[in-house]
Amino acid sequence: ASQGAFNDSIDRTIFVGNDGTVTGSDGLPLDVSSADSWAVSHILNAYQQGLITSRTGSNFKNKITRLQFAELAVNLIEKATGTTLPTGSQSFSDTQDPVASKAVAAGITGGTSESTFSPDSNITREQISVMLKKVVDYVDAAKGTSTLINTSTTLNSAYTDAAQVSSWASDSMALMTNNGLMSGTSATTLSPANNTTIQEAHTLILALYNKLAAN
């Protein structure tokens, strides 16, 4: 850039995908301009570990959908076990995406009905805790490990909204929080029915990956 006596230049690296979209810039392999500052290091670390999928590599402040989180969970299992999950026989009327079939076949999640997966619905924190617990169970069974050292299924009494956690999610949410794999939305709240952003999901997936890799 130059103007009168002023002259300066800055080098920038732009990463462009096969479809022509910009996938990274400013010397980074991923465009993190849409992320909050606190999340950038987590996102880049997750990227380096291969934990970020094609549909979760942008719009980091957006609420994550069921299909997006299922894809992160399936990918995490495959990274942690070094295997490729089989595509099951389950079919849905609202998605033909193999990720949904893989997730159901592996027992990570089910459909929202016998014929629907609701791929574009936002997922809640308590639903995520159940899926993460099932990821742990799958990986531990495959590797013969015991990842969750704290086996208490009692929610910390510091959480004043613990009674709002659905009965089907209570054990999983307790195990995730008691083992430091999920934190509250504050020191005293779990907010089980709240949705989760893509950047928050990457932080959770990275924390669990590191825990699984340590076994």
What does this structure look like?
It is built from six helices and four strands. The protein is 39% helix and 4% strand. Residues 21-26 have low confidence and may be disordered. The chain is globular and about 70 Å long. The chain has a two-stranded antiparallel sheet. Strand 1 and strand 2 form a beta hairpin. It is mainly α and 215 residues long. The protein has helices at residues 37-48, 66-81, 98-105, 125-143, 167-178, 198-213, and strands at residues 2-3, 6-7, 15-16, 22-24.
Features:
6 helices; two-stranded antiparallel sheet; single chain
Concise overview:
This protein is mainly alpha-helical and 215 residues long.
Task: Specify the overall morphology.
Answer: globular
- Quaternary: single chain
**Strand residue percentage:** under 5%
Distance between termini?
A: 52 Å
The spatial strand order of the largest sheet comes to 1-2
Structural class based on helices, strands and sheet pairing: mainly alpha
Mean pLDDT: 90
The radius of gyration computed from the alpha-carbon positions, rounded to a whole number of angstroms, is 19 Å
**Poorly predicted spans:** 21-26
Bin the helical content: 25-40%
Tell me the total number of β-strands: 4
> Number of helical segments?
6
Q: Give me the strand/helix succession.
A: EEEEHHHHHH
Largest sheet report: 2 strands, antiparallel
